[in-house]
Amino acid sequence: MRDLGTVVRGIRTPIIKENDDLERIVVDSIINASKNNGFEFNDRDVVAITEAVVGISEGNYVTVDTVSEDIKKKYNNPEELGIVFPILSRNRFSIILKAIARSTKKLYVQLSFPSDEVGNGILDEEKLYNSKFNLNSIITEDEYREYFGDWLHPFTGINMIDFYKELIESEGCKAEFILSNNATDILKYTKNVLACDIHTRFQTKKLLEEKKAKVYGLHEIMTKSINGSGYNEKYGMLGSNKSTEERLKLFPRTGQILVENIQKDLKEKTGKNIEVMVYGDGAFKDPVGHIWELADPVVSPAYTKGLEGTPNEIKLKYVSDNKYSDLSGDKLKEAIKDEIKAKDKDLKGKMITQGTTPRRLTDLIGSLCDLTSGSGDKGTPVVFIQGYFDNLADE
After folding, report:
1. What sign for the dihedral angle of Cα 62, 220, 165, 175?
2. Which one of 97, 124, 196, 288 counts the least CB within 10 Å of its CB?
């Protein structure tokens, strides 16, 4: 009788550097972990690799000056430029902002409020609701400083408007900030606009194009190599991270080839059909800081075919409390096992699924992996999951 359900293990690997053979490192690390820790492989186990080491190993880097060169070319050396809805992040956006500042003489920065797209706050919400402003207002930089300028992020102790303004002006560029939730308000200041939002980027760009703005999105910057630089043809600058003060690591490009090759290698070495994916930020929200973790354009940019789709599960609590409310103990357990075995192949829309999580498998598993590996010093850029696709009826 099985006593364990899903088991998640962080797999330690060597420190991965540019041009390393990541496929070999991942496979060897998992095989060695199995030998040293006494676990075996099964069909439908999952191996997940963080996107950071994929981008590092493939050398997908770009310098601040190269990003600036691409922006200048697209806007024809603009005297002024506006950006809308950038996230408030020293790791994710500050180095991109440095490149933007090098591209122009005057930069208008329009921020959403009371927080950015992924939940980073910019002002005291209680003060906002007791002020003359509302979510449809335009708040100038002077007004922000008068009413909300003493605000500091509760976790970092930083006011990001101050941080961003200092960064922009250190590049010899003038900066003016506006707070507004209407993307087209930036057009009151300039017609040259770079849409910096992530998950709403297509809607934002469409709204601005309808108003005759000259607009690109971050996903359209660095989509081609410039003088041998890194690039990402699909996501551009989205998913990038600070590497140094003058260089960014871009979202990986070769993930699909990598996951398919690892799957093939593991099949040869273990005899099992193991699913493989690349994962970035998980998609979950911090209940205290209110930060929605997903600053990458997707949770998983590459995965094998067995990870397509959504869970097809029944809600045990619902079945127990309703259909089998008169049973208990072993009889209840056996009845529910039979219910699971007899469930339809597609339960979408049926009441028996209510309360189960209606999300894609790659988003669920990627979030699990991101929580397991963390973003600090655990040293486990590979996560190995067993039993994720099992249920109570499996023995």
Report:
1. positive
2. 288
| Sheet bearing 275-279, strands edge to edge | 7-11, 382-386, 46-50, 275-279, 302-303
Contacts of 78 (CB under 8 A, 6+ apart): 72, 103, 104, 192
User: Can you tell me which residue has the tokens 């991965």?
Assistant: 16
How many Å apart are CA 8 and CA 152, to the nearest integer? 37
Q: Encoding tokens for residue 106?
A: 């005057």
Cβ(291)–Cβ(119) below 8 Å: yes
Cα-trace Rg, the chain? 24
Going from the N-terminus, what domains does the chain have, and what CATH number goes with each?
Answer: 7-59+252-311+357-386 (3.30.1330.100), 61-249 (3.40.50)
Question: Does residue 29 contact residue 380 with C-beta atoms inside 8 Å?
Answer: no
User: Under 8 Å CB-to-CB from 330, ≥6 apart: which residues?
Assistant: none
pLDDT digits (tens, 9 = 90+) for 60-107: 999 999 999 999 999 999 999 999 999 999 989 999 999 999 999 999
Mean pLDDT check: name the lowest of 79-83, 228-232, 342-346: 342-346
